[in-house]
Amino acid sequence: MFPKATGILFLFCICQTTFLFSQDNYEMKPNSDETVIDFLSSYYNQNGDHSPVTGGIGTQHLTDFATGITVNVPLDTVNALNISWGADFYSSASTDKIDNNVSSASSSDVRVYGTVGYNRKNLKRRETYGIHVGASKEYDYTSFDIGLSLTKEFNDDNTEISFNGKVYLGNWKLIFPIELRSEVKLPTDKRKSYNAQLVFSQVLTKRLQMSISGDIVYMRGLLSTPFHRVFFQDQSQHDIERLPNTRLKIPIGIRLNYYPFDNFIIRSYYRFYTDDWGIDAHTVVIETLVKITKSWTVQPFYRFHTQTQADHFAAFGVNKASQQYYTSDYDLADLHSHKVGMGLRYAPLYGLARIKLHLPKTKIFQLKSLEVRGGYYTQNTGLNSYFISLDLTMGIRNLTGN
Amino acid sequence: MKFIKGIFALLFIAFLLQSCVSVKAYQKMYLNDNEMQLTTKKSAQFETNFEAYREGAQGANGGKVGGGCGCN
User: Fold this and answer.
1) Looking at this predicted complex, what is its ipTM?
2) Which pLDDT score, from 0 to 100, does residue B22 have?
3) Is the pLDDT at A67 greater than 80, yes or no?
4) SS3 A10
5) Inter-chain residue contact A203 with B21, CB threshold 8 Å
6) Hey, which residues 7-36 in chain A have their CB within 8 Å of chain B?
7) Which one, of B64, B61, B34, B41, lies nearest residue A390 by Cα?
């Protein structure tokens, strides 16, 4: 299956190279002079009864408060910097069960991350080249990543092809369940992930556009979680989760955005996913955006997801000790989920507020828009959660700029 | 497998269509609307993350696919 899919994807790439030589006469848009800043924040609260830390049973109560900032700085008409950083503060009743101390250090953690990217446009060739580096750190996992990107637009900017390549290098701090620490070993504490993504975007009509996105992800190294427990049928000594040291993932997504009437937009998304651990999945998202005034937009949304279970998954007490691989992590189970919610966006024409900044060059700082989004997520496994997110967009531009 | 074939068929049709469509820049007032962008909304970024943590499938949506965290 994978060689065929890869072959067809390669054939698509070859076909598309013919359009790289097309005779487009339009000019690619240069960068605007506006620095855009997004402040993002989110609260997430989850409950369930299938904690993998306790072998597939037990509380999955977890709260997460996440914040992030993204800054896009145009250096000139062709060069731009993109910087993002953030932190997740989470507390988890299940990771508290790694040892026998309630509310010990394992009951909460902080994950911090950051990325710096640089883009350069070639206006004549209508191409954009990018490079970025990033890092992420939480108590038991550290990761570094580097990526390259190339985007080509043609056909009067009605068609765009983008390629992104990324490599993640990760390191676990091996923390085993307290009762198994003198007994278990793992051959490595490292994880590597190689990601390649191809995106094809196409304008179909004046009100309709689509994109198709395909990823190929190859992971290698320690792919299980060291503190997840697995209990066996014969009630012999339990063990930690053991999973294959490689994984190949292929998700393919399609987006279709349609503006059928003034003040009404439909955003739709479908993804098919398959991997060599036995999971096949389908995901569908529908968002409708209703502009009730020029400044206010209401955005109800719905998401449905279904997946088959991984080959090595079994519930508590079902796996056999004789198996080479086993897990009771319900993230890898046969499941389906629903997510429903609503967003509200306020984006007046001249922003929520504007301030003149008297720097060497007079600039305008503007609060451009505020979006609040909340919803409810539930799985047939019994896991359910609610969330609320906020996105505040700001801009800084020259007083006489666009 | 049928779904992969269907998706690539759709992709091939899009490839054929691209040579027929030429919407000029001054005609793109609807397409250039902020809400018509062909990416996950920034306000949904954290939702994409928790979906990747709690489900076995990720990717093709700008979110985590593999790496950057201790998740699968």
Assistant:
1) 0.84
2) 83
3) yes
4) helix
5) yes
6) 8-9, 12, 15-16, 19, 26
7) B41
